[in-house]
Amino acid sequence: MARRVAVIGAGSSGLTCIKCCLEEGLEPVCFESSDDIGGLWRFKEIPEPERSSTYRSLVTNTSKEMMCFSDLPMPAHFPNFMHNSQLLQYLQLYAAHFNLLQHIHFQTTVLSVKQSPDFACSGQWEVLTEDRDGLKKIHIFDAVLVCTGHYTKPVMPLKDFPGFETFKGEYCHSSEYKDPEPYKGKKVVVVGIGNSGADIAVELSRVAKKTFVSTRQGAWVIRRTSHKGCPFDITAFTRLLDLQGLLLPRRLINWVSERELNQKYDHRLYGLMPKHRLFDQIPVINDDLPACILLGVVVMKPHIQEFQGSTVAFVNGTKEEQIDAVVFCTGYNCSFPFLTASVFTGPGHNLNLYKHIFPPSLEHPTLAIIGLIEPWGPIMPMAEMQARWATQVITGNFSFSFLCFF
Q: I need a surface site. Which of 65, 186, 189, 231 has the fewest CB within 10 A?
């Protein structure tokens, strides 16, 4: 009898987990709280609580050649960098090609995942679910693969900004942002300069009266195209460059790479110069931000010192008056409300995962977190590799001891 595996979430990571389970002779049962596959890549006009969604214009930051799964290339007529709707279409093609939909229970929420009473012997888990009709059910699984991602709990650090309670304009988190029309003719401050912050600032600059970007640390900005117009990740992620990264001093690699970026546009002159070195954090991928700064439609600002009603004061002493709206692009926290505290071992209940997959505190490696990574490059193929390894561990085809690595 095949071992039963619960797969939580039917986004890109969940789909590849279902397929890997089938390849290893396991019986996957996927629970998806929404009514369709796609996860983050399903555009929703109205944001849903505790469920990530993209904004209307979002285009991928990695090329189709690099981000596709290993056994199904992207359609040839797709562009190198795809609109979010095209990536969703690819995931639908993937699910249909490998006949994955029959293993998914839609509109079914996982309420809790806890060890079975005989976990020490069996390694099994009790999974409590609730369907669309409110019916709750307890399932027993031999293993659990968590594929809910880390874009579910938006960070809104309002308390970090003195006087924010005096601001009477509109404000939202980037997870609620869908398109720029509501901001037409307004003065907007975008807080944060990750990929979402840069995208939203550029888009707002086309309709807003003025767009300001407040950043605490700055960012290195890279275009989607590289040598001879090829996608940057095709030229950057090669075995040769990876070997150089292992052999050459990190300080030298940072210096050479930063020098090349600054020859395209001096980050200091553009107000982008970060406090960190290039390879210490993931850079921002954006084609238009430097041009918008050059045109003056996006104005870079340092960290916000305080709000004074509709006036925003910055730490460099400058002030901007009559601000109408603020968009907080301040990231997300990991949230797994259905997991018991026993899988958390780090300070403050932070997940401590061996190889970014397995909680080392468990007696049996029968619970894995898939896709909880922020790599230099696409997540999807890495999530596929994680799923392959995790399912082989579950079947016993690959074994290891956590104790060997401490």
A: 65
Q: What is the CATH number of domain 156-328?
A: 3.50.50.60
The pLDDT of 82-96, averaged and rounded, is 97
* Cα–Cα distance, 390 to 354 (Å, whole number): 12
Q: What is the pLDDT of residue 40?
A: 87
Residues of the chain with CATH 3.50.50.60: 4-152+332-405, 156-328
- Residue 322: count other Cβ atoms within 10 Å of its Cβ: 13
Sequence-distant (≥ 6) Cβ neighbours of residue 279 within 8 angstroms: 250, 253, 254, 257
- Label residue 134 by pLDDT band (50, 70, 90): very high
Beta strands 143-146 and 4-8, pairing class = parallel
pLDDT per position as a tens digit, 40-78: 899 988 877 767 778 999 999 999 999 999 999 999 999
HEC string of 167-227 equals CCCEEEEHHHCCCCHHHCCCEEEEECCCHHHHHHHHHHHCCCCEEEEECCCCCCEECCECH
Q: Give the mean pLDDT of 237-251.
A: 88
Instruction: Look at residues 342, 354, 11 and name the one whose alpha carbon lies nearest to residue 151.
Output: 11
As a whole number of angstroms, the distance between CA 209 and CA 203 comes to 12
Q: pTM value?
A: 0.91
Confidence of residue 37 (pLDDT cuts 50, 70, 90): very high
Architecture (CATH level 2) of domain 4-152+332-405: 3-Layer(bba) Sandwich (3.50)
Rounded CA gap, 340 and 359, in Å?
Answer: 12
Instruction: Copy the structure tokens of residue 294.
Output: 């050059």
Could you give the C-alpha distances from 194 to 157, 180, 253, in angstroms and in order?
16, 18, 23
Dihedral angle over CA of 293, 227, 259, 81, nearest 10: 50
DSSP codes of every residue in 80-133? SS-BHHHHHHHHHHHHHHTT-GGGEEET-EEEEEEE-TTHHHH--EEEEEE-TT
Task: Name the one residue in this structure whose structure tokens are 């369709």.
Answer: 36
Query: Which band of pLDDT confidence, cut at 50, 70 and 90, is reported for residue 353?
Result: confident
Nearest CA to 206 among 278, 138, 292, 294? Answer: 292
Q: What single-letter amino acid sits at 178?
A: K
CA-to-CA dists, residue 121 to 118, 125, 339, angstroms:
6, 12, 20
Which tokens in the block code for residue 40? 């983050």
